[in-house]
M1 family metallopeptidase (Paenibacillus thiaminolyticus), 497 residues
Amino acid sequence: MRLTDVSIYNTPLLRHAGIFISLLALLAVLTGCTGKDSSAQALQGSSPIQYQVTAVWDDATHSLKATTVLHFRNEFNHALKELVFHWYADSYRIPDTQPVHERKLNQRLASEGLLGTALSDLPASGAGVTTTAVTLENGQSLEYEHVNQSLTVQLKQPLAPNGSVSLRIRYEIQLPYGAWRLAYNEQFAGGTYWTPQLAVYNPLRHAWNRVPNYPGYTSDYFYAADYDVHLQLPASWLVVTTGQQLDHRVQDGVQSTHIRANGIRQLAFYASPDYTETKRPLPEGKSLSVYTLDDGEQPSEQWLDAAADAIAFYSDAIGELPGKHWAFVEAPYAGMNDSLDGIILFGREEKLNGPLSPDMLRLIAKQWFGSAIGINSRTDGFLDEGMSEFAARFYRHQRLQEPWPSASTTDYRALVLPAARLGDDAVTIYRERGAELLAAWTQAVGTDAVPVVWKSYYNRYRGQFATIDGFLNVAEDALGQEAHDRLWQLLNNPPSS
């Protein structure tokens, strides 16, 4: 997968519109018609999945009104009768489907009086997606079903192998209020889940992955795709978004921004009228920017040096990411963080006047293990959480000469278990136990072996999907059977006490 540059847009809520534009573009790529000139031109790009998104922010309703055109080329060896998209923003509609970690965070913030709204109002009623129309590019209507966080579109005729189709999806997304992965408050709006994303297709079962977002653990499992986005947002907001800015115009208090992001898994934006940018150049023409809120702490030179060093360390130990710009964006609440294709969202508890926190190091490492390399989070969450947390500890061990932390977890369930088997503790088990397991393995095979495995793993699976079995095979190819067997034993048969 290619990680693209990050674009900044000065605009209030119009940035959200841009987000919607991305959604539209995505949908356009996913649904389309065969034989159209526009479709043929769109599919000249590198990805068989291309989204053209146009989005406009509505400040009165805190929503994005958008259209996504999906251009999709069938690279499977049999015809497809339908296309399926995820609408994970629907998970915020009712408490039973809301992500448990996010719901608990919002409940705590509300109980502390930090949200400015009644606990019973979280999230705002009506949050989620309304699909208004699905058509071919020529305007011909298509049958569709929007249910259970997915959108199923019936094609007029089966799409043959190597055939292309272009669909136009019109929709509106109302953002929930508070500290969600996609959210708004009085000074902030943004996140992910605001564009339709083509589900992963299993060619052996001839079935799409319609599984809704699992409340106990994030269900990220997305193809890398190309996005072409037009955002219309309030001109007063500073907007940070995945992708490279191609054009930016302001007229009558509205900013219109054209962005392009290739080879990304999730399109994200974060916007606030209160953001201030601090920029630091990196070697080889790259750069990093930190966006802090007006009442927040500005990053010190020591912190900027540490961030640059961590990026250089992982780039050398794992491999270079294609993107040339890193964006670190302050969230409006403590405990609110994410790591998505070139953008790192960090909570207000993060200290920017000294060395990087372990959480920040983990979020940086996720750019490789959670974005560049794709996984099915529901079944292989260890590869994201465990690898990223271990990478944070490995950096501190190698760069800062810190000893390996003592094992602290008491839950010894096997890390190959899917998230549903681990319940609400899946994140902790994958992350903490996974890092401890990898540290034990590293002490057996030697620290020099870690970059060898990382580089082989990254080179094999960047832009693709990895599995735990695939990672084990990489370890065997790089280090031999004994290293593979030791790691397999730790993953499948952890100690009972």
About this structure: The radius of gyration is 22 Å. Residues 1-43 have pLDDT under 50 and may be disordered. The longest helix spans residues 426-445. The chain has three domains: 6-272, 276-369, 377-492.
